[in-house]
Amino acid sequence: MSEVLEYDGWKENAIGEKFAADGAYLPFRGNTLICQLDQGSEIVSVISEMVEAMKAEGLARCYTFLPSASYHMTVFNGANDRARYLPAWPADLSLDAPMSACDRLFAQKLTDFSVTEFPVKMRIGAVVLKRGVSLSLAPMNQAEETKIRGLRDRLSHVLRCRRHNHDVYEFHISVSYLINPPVAEECRLLQRLRAVYLEKLMRVSPIIELNAPAFCVFEDMAEYRPVFRLV
């Protein structure tokens, strides 16, 4: 049960930056490279079922749930308005340049960028309850790990930006963000639901195959608008 209560830092990561205290979306302009989940897939169906079960148990008090259309795995973070410092911001762009200029710069660089690494196979690891609800993902084997880590290195080199956790980035699918820490009874509910839906996810879709990522722009966490898909 202790894992559910480990929410140190969640305010810095979500409330006041990506979400208001009531869970409403705040402006959070940026761009990213993501593998969007097929809305007709079994994994999206099970995640959506889990979300509805959480809402039915009153857990919407604790979380702001993301729309299923936004479910994705981030391949490379890109840049955003809140991280205008090096090396998170591209080294060849002024720190005060508008996000639209960053979008154009990245689009130009990615137009002829080849992603021969895809498709890539990822395995589901856990339903994680820290600072929100997410599914942890890991490459299926060492060959897949080498492919996707190598791709991230290539993207960092071409786009000239890099996050502090670049080498140890943990792949995941975000489902919700924490807005109010759960009390003891809610923790018990979360543990029960986590066990039920992890078992179901492992039964219906333990391995997911992801196609080439799309370069997307976003205004907030609700929607990622594809500019184009890499090939």
From TrEMBL:
Which SUPFAM superfamilies would you find in this protein's record?
LigT-like
* Annotated DUF1868 domain residues: 18-128
Residue stretches spanning the membrane: none
> What's the protein name?
DUF1868 domain-containing protein
What species is this protein from? Pantoea stewartii
